[in-house]
Design the sequence.
């Protein structure tokens, strides 16, 4: 199910890129925003989680004022 | 000719609330913002009204397109928030909400810095009481930290205003730029309220501590009044472009780690205000229009998101992603309204963020600032990732235990959410109405094939990334170390020391008559009045010393 939905999203992204190529006169590289959305999402999540584990997060216990 | 300042219904109602019955309180809380909204719409452009105090003219009413748009958003949102707070039983929350909304309207309509400063302080006071309305010790502590920040910011603002008045001979709110100490001091004061990092930590710290209705009021006014003031005073200042982009990304990054749904949305207030600050810094007609339009959109969609979060907390008593899940089945209307807010903030076509945020991003591109445009698009991805995917997925879907109350939010909450959702959709579908109210003549067409396709691709790419990484995005039982960790311990120690000092006086107080004992007991239970009185005195002193210091530094004394 997980993989199937991922393929659906990837297919929809691909269709959006094809539609852009066929019907839109873009001022930027084709598929730029699909790639940007996916790549920046992965980068932000992985880098921030790594930073969180390294120094930005601490256990809830004993917190608060 | 206007007979009544639009602020008056808010202030009169807030003053009357303690003296009327609960049903009358409800009616007043709704009628006052309605009256204020009508007055904002009726007051003619170009109206100017003020009074002379100690040789200064305080201009309380100066109406132009920018002032009217912000005042309209503030007053209109207060109507929606009043509906949301319909079941609120505490008079103080209603009064503080009205005071906060009235101060926002007043700040937008103020024509000079001194009048602005008065309403600026009204924003702080109204917010403070709303934070304390949370009624917990953590709310009290967060409120005090809020007070530290905002009194320090107000000190900077007042010092800058006095310096500016001394140098220019004018207190009129106008573009002053960053050419001297006065400009930087005023900017520092406004930066605190706009939550520009590293002066931002009060926002995710304090806003989630209030009641659900209190947080809804809090979300709309302080930061947007600061954006308005920045747009008046610092259009085209390059510093704000970088600061705005940094804000947009900062909020997104911290939201990745956040477990509390209202703190997560709080970080996204910082992120969205970042777009507006960037728009002010760009300073073009399109960018300034984008700032005004996005502030209007943001007030309603962020309020809507926090209303839905409040409805979840109302239904479950829980606010953490680790303790939530599966609520969509029990709260379908809340889920639908949340979705409208999430689509709006994420810039989905036909929702309000699509027609407002893109003006600022487009203005950056039109100026040839490709890096800035790219970074704002990345922040846009992060917005959809958290508010459009992470928060709803782990709150409304998934397999967590069902809530104790297996029904949707109360009718008043639902009604308010539907109203706010209607504004978001109407703005997104027919942006011409909003565009007609913008202050500058700049053509913008949001519904181009290129723009729509770019938005769809960005959203789909983000959704794919979320789906593949969703196991990593669930809440964790942790707290995030933001810059507030630097000052929490010293302020906590100060509170402890103050408490010990006052405890030492307890025996003396016990000997001094029933009335005093009663007062002492009440104080000891709440800790609030004496602590606040002491700290307000210290901070007021600090404000005056800073003002004198700045004037002396500038060689103006003696």
Sequence:
């Amino acid at each position: 199910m997980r993989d199937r939905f991922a393929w659906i999203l990837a297919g929809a992204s691909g269709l959006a890129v094809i539609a852009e190529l066929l019907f839109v006169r873009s001022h930027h590289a084709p598929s730029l925003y699909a790639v940007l959305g996916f790549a920046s999402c992965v980068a932000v999540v992985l880098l921030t989680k790594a930073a969180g584990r390294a120094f930005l997060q601490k256990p809830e216990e004993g917190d608060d004022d | 000719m206007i007979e009544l300042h639009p602020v008056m219904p808010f202030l009169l109602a807030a003053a009357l609330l303690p003296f009327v019955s609960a049903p009358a309180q409800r009616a007043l809380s709704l009628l006052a913002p309605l009256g204020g909204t009508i007055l904002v719409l009726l007051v003619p452009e170009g109206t100017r009204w003020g009074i002379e105090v100690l040789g200064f003219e305080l201009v309380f009413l100066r109406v132009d397109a920018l002032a009217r748009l912000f005042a309209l958003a503030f007053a209109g949102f207060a109507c929606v928030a009043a509906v949301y707070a319909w079941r609120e039983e505490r008079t103080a929350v209603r009064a503080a909400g009205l005071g906060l909304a009235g101060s926002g309207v007043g700040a937008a309509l103020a024509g000079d810095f001194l009048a602005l400063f008065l309403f600026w302080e009204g924003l702080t006071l109204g917010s403070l009481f709303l934070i304390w309305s949370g009624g917990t010790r953590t709310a009290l502590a967060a409120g005090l930290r809020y007070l530290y920040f905002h009194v320090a910011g107000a000190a900077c603002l007042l010092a800058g205003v006095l310096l500016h008045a001394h140098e220019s001979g004018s207190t009129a709110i106008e573009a002053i730029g960053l050419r001297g100490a006065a400009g930087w001091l005023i900017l520092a004061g406004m930066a605190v309220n706009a939550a520009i990092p590293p002066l931002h930590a009060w926002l995710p710290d304090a806003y989630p501590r209030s009641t659900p209705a209190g947080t809804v009021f809090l979300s709309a006014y302080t930061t947007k009044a600061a954006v308005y003031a920045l747009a008046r005073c610092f259009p085209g200042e390059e510093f704000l472009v970088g600061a705005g982009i940094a804000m947009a990304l900062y909020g997104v990054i911290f939201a990745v780690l956040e477990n509390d749904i209202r703190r997560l949305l709080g970080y996204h207030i910082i992120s969205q205000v970042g777009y507006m600050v960037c728009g002010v810094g760009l300073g073009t007609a399109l960018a300034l229009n984008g700032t005004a339009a996005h502030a209007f959109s943001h007030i309603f969609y962020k309020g809507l998101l926090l209303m839905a979060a409040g409805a979840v907390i109302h239904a479950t008593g829980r606010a953490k992603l680790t303790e939530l899940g599966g609520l969509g089945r029990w709260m379908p209307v809340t889920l639908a309204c949340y979705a409208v807010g999430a689509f709006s903030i994420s810039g989905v076509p036909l929702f309000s963020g699509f027609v407002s945020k893109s003006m600022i991003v487009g203005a950056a591109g039109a100026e040839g600032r490709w890096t800035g445009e790219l970074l704002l698009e990345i922040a846009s991805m992060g917005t959809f990732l958290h508010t459009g995917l992470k928060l709803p997925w782990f709150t409304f879907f998934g397999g967590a235990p069902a809530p104790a109350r297996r029904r949707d939010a109360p009718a008043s909450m639902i009604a308010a959410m539907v109203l706010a959702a209607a504004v978001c959709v109407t703005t997104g579908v027919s942006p011409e109405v909003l565009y007609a109210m913008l202050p500058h003549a700049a053509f913008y067409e949001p519904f181009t094939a290129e723009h729509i396709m770019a938005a769809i691709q960005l959203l789909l790419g983000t959704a794919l990334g979320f789906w593949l990484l969703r196991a990593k995005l669930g809440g964790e039982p942790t707290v995030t170390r933001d810059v507030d960790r630097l000052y929490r311990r010293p302020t906590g120690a100060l509170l402890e020391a103050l408490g010990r000092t006052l405890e030492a006086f307890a025996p003396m107080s016990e000997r001094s008559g029933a009335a005093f004992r009663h007062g002492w007991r009440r104080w000891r239970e709440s800790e609030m009045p004496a602590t606040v009185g002491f700290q307000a005195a210290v901070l007021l002193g600090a404000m005056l010393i800073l003002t004198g210091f700045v004037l002396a530094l500038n060689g103006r004394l003696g």
Observations:
- The longest strand of chain A covers residues 57-59.
- Chain A has one domain: 2-55.
- The helical segments of chain A are 2-23, 32-56.
